[in-house]
Design brief:
single chain, mainly alpha, Growth Hormone, Chain: A, 0% strand, MFS_dom, NO3_transporter, transmembrane
Length: 427
């Protein structure tokens, strides 16, 4: 293997994982009709798709460091594929709901691939490589929204069966072709550092805590909208199944395909030593993250305003801008994570990626209840924008040069102060 073939393998596997993760979204209408679901039930299903991701990502990030990404990726794909097949034959909503909970753990593969790519690429290419991996991989949700309704119509059972078999096949490919790292020494170092003490050290650093919350408002928002937008366009504008899914796909495409651009920008700012926010001089990756997070807030308010006009075209365009803002924020965050913890990327990615998915659990519930509590189905986006402003302010505080230089070593809790001092001396 080379680093480029590793990137291609990880990206293809994650793209399929993301497609499977949100393969239910285009079929919420037919599924709701068959099982007699309300709009709230559909919102709960969208939320439930995220439940296993927070603990699952934390665990699989550590497992990837300890045992190597190929083994972990293949294992997850295999059982996710098996339960996708099971869900295709569910004869009750309870059986369907429980099997899809297991399928939803496909989302944990993100941190596995992050660790795998980081083990093959040098620091100066990390932002771009991780952006390509995550961005093209995330576009799997758009692929599902565009392709599945067209290939299978309203036949969600066939869709879940076929995608499940595809996941099992990809598991076999990954275990046969994947290699842990560019060298045995690098793989061995990651494995030896995968201890509880090391995990606790990473989990309690300021940098990880701030980036995890930044991922709540970027990736958490993205996955919540992947599951919610088909319902939103159907309920808010009376769109049909295929049309609503197509509108929703514009968000997913923007959220996926633009992520590499942000990673590249972060890399380039570092190489050129360029400041985009002079108040945080000398910390270009952190500056770029704060800029991108601010864009998320502004674009969410814009989506509410666009929806209130009643114009479908304007709302689709505003949704694409929200998707772009999520992509840029995610790319900025995961340009920082492996650069901050090069020897413990799996653990750091697992924590940031795991906590970040909590947004996907809570945000759909806000969206689904907006019409009742706020008087408009469009107002949920503005409500979320208001809630995440403190996260932007926290990341701006961490981005101050005096703290940013030590964000990988300092934290509110210090279970390993000796290690902190050693890390600081390396600066």
């Amino acid at each position: 293997m080379t680093k480029w073939r590793t990137l291609l393998l990880a990206t293809a596997a994650f793209n399929l994982s993301f497609l499977i993760w949100f393969s239910f979204a285009p079929f919420t209408g037919p599924i709701g009709e068959e099982f007699g679901l309300t709009t709230w039930d559909v919102g709960l299903l969208a939320s439930a798709a995220i439940w296993s991701a927070p603990p699952g990502r934390i665990v699989t990030g550590w497992l990837s460091d300890r045992f190597g990404a190929p083994k972990v990726f293949a294992a997850v794909l295999a059982y996710v594929g098996a339960f996708s097949v099971v869900s295709a034959f569910a004869d009750s909503y309870v059986a369907f709901f429980l099997s899809r909970l297991v399928v939803a753990s496909a989302g944990v593969t993100f941190v596995v691939g992050i660790q795998h790519v980081a083990q093959w690429f040098p620091e100066e290419q990390l932002g771009t490589a991780e952006g390509v991996y995550a961005g093209v991989g995330n576009a799997g949700a758009a692929g599902g929204a565009l392709l599945l309704p067209r290939l299978f119509g309203a036949d969600w059972r066939s869709a879940f069966l076929v995608t499940g078999v595809a996941a099992i096949a990809m598991a076999v490919v990954y275990v046969l072709l994947g290699e842990d790292a560019e060298s045995e020494a690098r793989a061995r170092e990651a494995s030896e550092r995968a201890s509880l003490r090391e995990w606790l050290h990473v989990a309690t650093r300021y940098g990880v805590l701030a980036l995890a919350l930044a991922y709540v408002m970027s990736f958490g928002l993205e996955i919540s909208m992947n599951g919610w937008l088909p319902t939103y366009f159907r309920e808010g504008f009376g769109s049909g199944l295929v049309v609503a899914s197509t509108f929703a796909a514009t968000f997913s495409l923007a959220a996926g395909l633009l992520r590499p651009v942000s990673g590249y920008v972060s890399d380039r700012l570092v190489r050129e030593g360029r400041d985009v926010l002079p108040v945080f001089a000398g910390r270009p990756r952190e500056q770029w993250t704060v800029v991108c997070l601010s864009w998320v807030v502004v674009s969410l308010f814009g989506l509410t305003l666009a929806g209130e006009t009643g114009s479908v075209g304007l709302t689709v365009a505003a949704g694409a801008l929200v998707g772009a803002s999520c992509a840029f924020a995610e790319g900025a965050v995961f340009a920082q994570v492996p650069a901050m913890f090069p020897e413990r990327t799996g653990a750091a990615a697992g924590i940031v990626g795991g906590i970040g998915t909590f947004g996907g659990i809570g945000f759909p519930l806000i969206f689904a209840s907006a019409e009742t509590t706020l008087g408009s189905v469009h107002a949920g986006y503005a409500a979320v924008a208001t809630l995440v402003i403190p996260i932007v302010l926290l990341n701006a505080w961490i981005a101050r040069p005096a703290l940013a230089r030590r964000a990988h070593a300092a934290g509110p809790f210090d279970p390993s102060p000796a290690r902190d001092r050693a890390d600081e001396s390396d600066d």
